[in-house]
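REQUEST ID: PR-0412
SUBMITTED BY: lab tech R.K.
PRIORITY: routine
TASK: structure prediction, single protein chain
INPUT:
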Amino acid sequence: MIDGAWGGQLLTRGFVPVLDDHQSNYLAVIVHAPLAYRVVYLPHDDGSRLLYRDLHGFAKALLEKKVSGCAGEKPGESCE
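STATUS: complete
OUTPUT:
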């Protein structure tokens, strides 16, 4: 479920949110070319950035962090 007006606006602009931190920061999949299927970090107060080339890479990284016990890190940062 996408909460808030900003989350709904993401859909109309070609982003499908997959995770949010309840502070208007999202990880979303881009669905329009030329960046289709890339996963992007969309913070509410800073510049966006591409994090993963596809959903497979995102899912793999998510599972690796879960298995390693790494939690609470910002997207794209390591736990080390």
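NOTES: Residues 47 and 79 are 22 Å apart (CA to CA).
REVIEWED BY: pending
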